[in-house]
Write a structure and sequence with these properties.
With 174 residues, the protein is α/β, with parallel strands linked by helices. 28% of the residues lie in helices and 34% in strands. The chain contains 5 helices and 9 strands; from the N terminus they run αββααβαββββαββ. The structure holds adenosine monophosphate.
Length: 174
């Protein structure tokens, strides 16, 4: 499905380090028609889910989350790398291949019971999106959906996605 759109994603071998095949979405985003179509497809997918907030993960998640929130008429909330948000934050740490990283959200970003869609560009091992979902739940939000442009199936990140949510990825790679 959507093969023409998928062809716009560029594969870069051995970036940012040997053995990684980087999925470069800049080549899709710079094509106005393709960008438009991707956001329209995402918006149609979640049009009936009564999303209150789109939570976008720094940084490529913002590129999709902002236009999606606008199109859904939802609010946009950012999950940021540590030290960037100015007010009081909640933080969740998560494991990387080497070491740990963390995401932060403003403590007052999401009111109890609000319906949330979490979005990032790509699902790999799932650690990043799990941290974002844990943050939303700490703040009292309800994860209704997760969305990705790309899912790397071999890394089985889907195992870390909330099972009660609608989990959507547009392009899947073996
Ligand atoms: P993970 O936490 O393992 O699911 O990794 C997902 C995050 O890392 C996303 O924010 C992606 O932007 C980035 N990422 C991981 N692997 C790739 C890849 N092969 N190409 C592009 N981005 C990637």
């Amino acid at each position: 499905m959507f093969e023409d759109l998928q062809k716009k994603i560029r594969n870069i071998s051995n970036f940012p380090k040997p053995g990684i095949e980087f999925k470069d979405i800049t080549t899709l985003l710079k094509d106005g028609a393709a960008f438009h179509k991707v956001i329209d497809i995402l918006a149609a997918e979640f049009a009936k889910d009564k999303i209150d907030y789109v939570v976008a993960i720094e940084s490529r998640g913002y590129l999709l989350g902002a236009p999606l929130a606008y199109k859904l008429g939802a609010g946009l909330v950012v999950a940021r790398k540590p030290g960037k948000l100015p007010s009081e934050v909640e933080r969740v740490e998560y494991a990387l291949e080497y070491g740990t990283d963390a995401l932060e959200m403003h403590k007052d970003a999401i009111e109890k019971g609000k319906r949330v869609l979490v979005i990032d560009d790509l699902l790999a091992t799932g650690g990043t999106v799990k941290a974002a979902c844990d943050l939303v739940e700490k703040l009292g939000g309800k994860i209704v959906a997760t969305a990705f442009l790309i899912e790397l199936l071999a890394l089985k990140g889907c195992k870390l996605l909330p099972s009660s949510a609608k989990n959507y990825s547009m392009f899947k790679y073996e």
